[in-house]
Amino acid sequence: MAVLDCPACRKPMHEINHQGVLIDTCLECCCVWLERG
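Above: the chain's sequence. Below: its structure in token form.
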């Protein structure tokens, strides 16, 4: 999957797998993005 840019600060987000759920987080501003589903 492509790296997402944070919708708040436009920095690259980091993908974390938490118990099978993919969570994109921004280490700069702590924004969290969840995929639909």
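The mean pLDDT is 89.
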